[in-house]
Amino acid sequence: MAQPSYSKETNVLRDIAASPNCRFIWTKHAKAAIADDGRVTGDIEYSLTNGQVVLIEWKKEILWRVDGYDVDGNPITSVIVAYEDEITIKFVTAF
Questions:
Q1: Domain-wise residue ranges, the chain
Q2: Is domain 21-94 classified as CATH 3.30.2310?
């Protein structure tokens, strides 16, 4: 069975993340998860500009799982909520 392609969502994500007006919201869980991994928020934010949406989950909000790379080329997976109209990305977790 073929993997679903989330190219439209990936393009939306990259556009939002690259916007100078983008606002990032961090949940307590996301901040703790990146600190536990010895990363900083800039690594995760950067990974969205080169990342790809690989999974969409419908929960209380529509969650996108994104695989990308930090500034040093290390892989990062993030779970985010993208608010296209508000040019905002909420980080739920990262690993």
A1: 21-94
A2: yes
